[in-house]
Amino acid sequence: MPAPLLEVTNLAKSFGTFTAVKSVTFNVNPGEVVGLLGVNGAGKTTLLSMILGLITPDSGSIRVFGMDLAKQRLAILKRTNFCTTYASLPSNLKVKHNLRIFARLYGVKNPSRKVDELLELLEITRLADSITGRLSAGESTRVNLAKAILNDPDLLMLDEPTASLDPDIADKVRKLVRRVQHDRSPAILYTSHNMRDIEEVCDRVLFLHQGSILAQGTPAEIVDHFQEADLENVFIKVARSGEVVTP
Amino acid sequence: MNPSVILALLTRYVLLYTRNPVRLFELFFWPIVQLLMWGFVTGYLQQQGDGDFSKTISFLIGAIILWDALFRSQQGVAISFLEDVWTRNLLNVFAAPVRMTEYLAATFSVGFLRVIITSLVLALIAWTGYAFNLFQFQGWLIPYYANLMIFGWSLGILSTAMVLRWGHGAESLAWAIPFMVQPVAAVFYPVSSLPAWLQPIALALPPSHVFEGMRAAVAGKDALWSPMITAFSLNLVYLAAAGAVFALTMRSARRKGLLVKVTSS
Question: Distance from B83 to chain A by nearest Cα, in Å?
Fold first, then answer.
């Protein structure tokens, strides 16, 4: 069994009286795709932000690639990348310029060639000279995904990558994520409200509720655990319960 | 610090200007308006009055051009940060392997470029419109500009820290902060014309020493190194203090989740 790529231990975070994450512990193994599922406010984005070093935890530890995030943040970030609905690439620059700039920030050798290669992989070469702010939601997601894999990350975090996409584009994005995972084998931490995303993309799911992990396992195991017909019903059951559900 | 990271960030800001005519317009509009307006006002006063206003015009034009250096330098830092907030790019930058020192160095470079470009344009207008030669200060221009730019960076860092701490509500401070300093920085009048209780405050600000030096040079007095060294020493203190405030604010922002909030709100 390889050493875990990401080790989160007893992680907790509160904002004033609101507890966003309470004593969360989990590991992600190399090449594994782990889904973070939960209603709004469950703590998914706070958790990802802590792993990216954007939010400091109140307690607990995060180790990535065997290194302590609190002490070796830059070394970790060089091998990590992310894509979130809460961030965009500068809207007034051309796609190729944005990607080349980020390639250089991540220390990618030969940024222009790398960008061309990724645009081709994601089938968006035609967008290279487009202004980023004029892209459709689907195109924008693919460009953000290109930014997220510029440095061939060993750990990739995707925060609701299919949010606000129509089912056709969402399906294409899921296929792209699978393809990227197949070709480059990064471990992926994937948050979504879309059950189909989770079922199709993730090997394992962490079901977060009120800042705690309520259940974890394969999507099928989660469904069995809650004795529901499918993942969507599990989600609704948890969301409507208002508190932690005991199956 | 990694020069390649600084250059990449700088490229992003430069592209922002070169690809956006409105930004270029904004870069030149206000300093030119101010120069023209105050130039015409003093020209009018000269026509109406009996005294010799030629030095007054020189004081004023010199002050406007040098003040713009401080303001543009502050804006280079503060507006670069705000651009990242407005374009929701802040998380992308701060979750990339970028040191805070590299980020600040890139914004300092933006300030430097803005100062050089607008100063050349203003110098040309002052030369053609009012026969004011900015280069009459010769080598002294270097300590003048260096001191004003460094103080502008310090103010820019403080403006950035405030936006980070208080969010969008504090954005107007990015423009207001230099003008909070201006009345006591002896920009358009000597320190001696300030009330006695304000003079120590003025002397504690690096720009006061620069503007006093500039006025002395225009008046034909010997330029002295000591005020420039005082200004530089004060600048080191202000820059270190601003850096410390920024580091503490950034630590607090990470603890309170403000980095995510300022981008997503």
Answer: 9
B33-79, pLDDT tens digit by residue? 888 888 788 777 777 766 666 677 778 888 889 999 999 999 999 98
Residue in B92, B255, B264 closest to A89 by CB: B92
For residue A107, what pLDDT band results from cuts at 50, 70 and 90? very high
B92 and A CB contact within 8 Å: yes
The encoded tokens of residue B157 equal 């860092």
**DSSP for residue A110:** S
Q: Which residues contact A127 (CB under 8 A, 6 or more apart)?
A: A95, A119, A135, A139, A142, A143
**Longest distance between any two alpha carbons in chain B, whole Å:** 64
A53, B20: Cβ pair inside 8 Å? no
Distance in angstroms (rounded) separating the CA atoms of residues B82 and B88: 10
Q: b/e for A74-89, b at 16 or more Cβ within 10 A?
A: eebbbbbbbbbbbbbb
Quote the ipTM score.
Answer: 0.86
| Alpha-carbon span B194 to B202, nearest angstrom | 8
What are the chain A neighbours of B258 within 8 Å (beta carbons)? none
Facing residue for B88 by CB, picked from A13, A87, A101: A87
Which residue's entry shows tokens 């999507």? Answer: A219
Q: Is A52 on the interface with B (CB under 8 A)?
A: yes
Beta carbons of A234 and A207 less than 8 angstroms apart:
yes
Q: How many domains does chain B have?
A: 1
- The yes-or-no verdict on residue B14 having pLDDT over 80 is yes
By the CB < 8 Å criterion, does A86 face chain B?
A: yes
> For residue A78, what is the nearest residue in chain B, using CA coordinates?
B97
Q: What is the pLDDT of residues B16-42, one digit of tens each?
A: 888 777 877 877 888 888 888 887 887
Q: pLDDT by residue (tens digit) across A108-141?
A: 999 999 999 989 888 889 999 999 989 988 888 8
